[in-house]
Amino acid sequence: MFTSPRNKESNERVKDERREQILSNALILFAKKGFAATKITDISAASGFSQGLIYHYYQSKEEIFVALIKNAVAIMNAAAVELERLPLTPLEKIKLAIGKLLQGLEEGEQVAYHYLLINQAVISEAIPDEAKLIVEEQTLRYEVIARIISAGQREGSFKKYDARDMALLFWTSLNGLAIYKAGHADNFKVPDANILISMFVLENINSKEV
Amino acid sequence: MFTSPRNKESNERVKDERREQILSNALILFAKKGFAATKITDISAASGFSQGLIYHYYQSKEEIFVALIKNAVAIMNAAAVELERLPLTPLEKIKLAIGKLLQGLEEGEQVAYHYLLINQAVISEAIPDEAKLIVEEQTLRYEVIARIISAGQREGSFKKYDARDMALLFWTSLNGLAIYKAGHADNFKVPDANILISMFVLENINSKEV
DNA sequence: GTCTATATCCAGATAGAC
DNA sequence: GTCTATCTGGATATAGAC
Fold it and tell me: Which end of chain A is more exposed for a tag (fewer CB within 10 A), N or C?
């Protein structure tokens, strides 16, 4: 068995796939065990090959973690930007965002894992500096939600608390829920979205819509 | 220098103090770095003595962590029980609870550290089984809040979503906030309590009271 | 590209001197 | 009660065979 020259791109593709595979396994492990407690052997075993081979694709455990953090932050930002651009009212946007995020928690694991990873980066002193920096610099999703809330307040459908306070609670509440889900995956039922919505939207407006 | 026989109790007291000292330092370290990344030398250094001496007071790193978890859970439960017993209306109880918890976040670090510790125990697979068990068995604070909410609904001052959903969001939202604070201790300002309250309490009731 | 050593380091825990 | 020295295991990362 040998590799013909013309398979070069194909090989590249295989390499990328391997890297993806490592990342997706590492994401779960890092999220569930934390950075420090996740061993390279855990990742290699989950990926189905030997421990040494990891270093063919990544230079270190840190590098894997940083790659995952970058990815998680990018996905969240992209979603926030997309949300802001949609031709919807502020009310509709907030409802859509909460709905989607809850749905993400209900169906997929990925969203929850991303939250857990970012939380580690924010909280823990035992996380690569590069990862901490990336997360700290990323406040876009807070700003987007704060802008939507402000717009909704001007428009009259939102409660008139400090918009940044509201945006903070928007994200921290969802985050808290994601953490809960991570610890109770088996019997986790997503709560009624309207409870969260009532932190932001005036009651009569909300009940009118429902 | 020798120890006279009659100093026995005094010695016991010193020993207890040392143990307390170890615990309070370990709490911060475990909360900030996580269980796996916290080294015995970190704890001994923070406490100002040699690494070996820790083992005079505790048998292992696990034992320290478990002691801390027990303590954290006990404090939270005690507070919940106390809250339920107070001669207040459900409305007053929920407001008091949110107020106190936010205040705890604002002033002290301890509450936030307890949250972080319990989160680790719930989420992480790299945590001593005994600690996980203790936390899993402790659902009292959820039950207490659910009961208060149910009472408030019967009484007519609370929103009529599923009481367990509401209790879940009560705790996960506060928890999410504690995590945020842990990562932004320097410039963290507690949000307006009324935003959280509006998840539970009917708007006209709440504004009447304020 | 993959595996099997293995070098190296570090952390938890123990032993024993003072 | 406290420290220093040491044992032991385990984890990251490297080297080199296939």
Answer: N
| A24 within domain boundaries | no
| pLDDT by residue, tens only, chain A of 210 residues | 444 555 677 778 888 889 999 999 999 999 999 999 999 999 999 999 999 999 999 999 999 999 999 999 999 999 999 999 999 999 999 999 999 999 999 998 899 999 999 999 999 999 999 999 999 999 999 999 999 999 999 999 999 999 999 999 999 999 999 999 999 988 899 999 999 999 999 988 877 544
**Is residue B137 situated within a structural domain?**
yes
* Helix (H) / strand (E) containing A104: helix A90-107
Give A140-192 as a DSSP string.
HHHHHHHHHHHHHHHHTSB--S-HHHHHHHHHHHHHHHHHHHHH--TT--PPP
DSSP letter string over A49-109? S-TTTHHHH-S-HHHHHHHHHHHHHHHHHHHHHHHHHSS--HHHHHHHHHHHHHHHHHH-S
Residue B203 lies in a domain: yes
- C-alpha B89 chain-centroid distance: 24
- How many CB pairs lie under 8 A apart between chains A and B? 149
Q: What's the Rg (C-alpha) of chain B?
A: 20
Count up the domains in chain A and report the number.
1
Distance from CA of B192 to the nearest CA of A (A): 7
**How remote is the C-alpha of B169 from its chain's centroid?**
17
In whole angstroms, what is the distance from residue B172 CA to residue A139 CA?
21
- CATH (domain of B163): 1.10.357.10
d(CA A124, CA B175): 16
Token pair in block for residue B91: 């409305």
In sign, the C-alpha dihedral spanning B172, B173, B178, B179 is: positive
| Under 8 Å between Cβ of A121 and A127 | yes
| A121 belongs to a structural domain | yes
CA B52 to C1' C14 (Å) is: 9
**A57 CA from D4 C1′ (Å):** 43
Q: Which domain holds residue B86?
A: 65-209
Whole-angstrom Cα distance, residue B170 to residue B197?
Answer: 9
Reduced to 3 states (helix: H, G, I; strand: E, B; else coil), residue B135 is helix
- The CA distance from B97 to A99, in Å, is 28
* Chain-chain contact of A179 with B123 (C-beta, under 8 angstroms): yes
